[in-house]
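2 proteins. here.
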Amino acid sequence: MLYSFVCEQCDKEFSLDLPVRKRNDKRICPNCKSSSIHRLFCSSVHYKGRGWATTESRLDKEDQKIEEILEEPIDPKEVEMGKEIIKERQKVKLEQRRTYGKDKLGAKNE
């Protein structure tokens, strides 16, 4: 985080990039070497690395692709195929639950 300080002796303002865990450590003024400094504030946003602009641009392109896909017409045959696949999966899960329940009951009765 970027923290801003002011020296109470020489009124010099300066900023330091510090980890949060070291924000309360004693500091020395780089101008007059006084230890009587006061923290003004810390920035709420500190951009580092590749930056947010490239990320935002990439996300806009991804959103545009998604919108294009959503605007494509849906083939009714594909919808029916999807419904059939879901029904088959539900049948398999139901059978697995029944088998699992029988195994549990059988283990308790033995």
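next one coming up
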Amino acid sequence: MAIILAYLIYPLASLLDKRTPLSWRGSVSIIFLILLLILLGLLTVGGMGLVQQVQSLIRIIRSILRNCQLLLRMFPRSICWVHSGSISPRST
């Protein structure tokens, strides 16, 4: 992984080394700092998206549980008993 990263960063570091008064170490340090800031920004955006998805999931689960409670309250009233060959609603 380090070899691939060094291969990809080399042209940019070389350009910064030649065109600015920065040393090689300074050029590489600035590139790594920029890459770190980009990575942290992407993680922040991804984390905010993840938080939104979790909040949405919690809302959906609450809604489902609320609907289940209503169904369970109504369920005993809708049970039909087989009474002498005919189906009639249970009297409460």
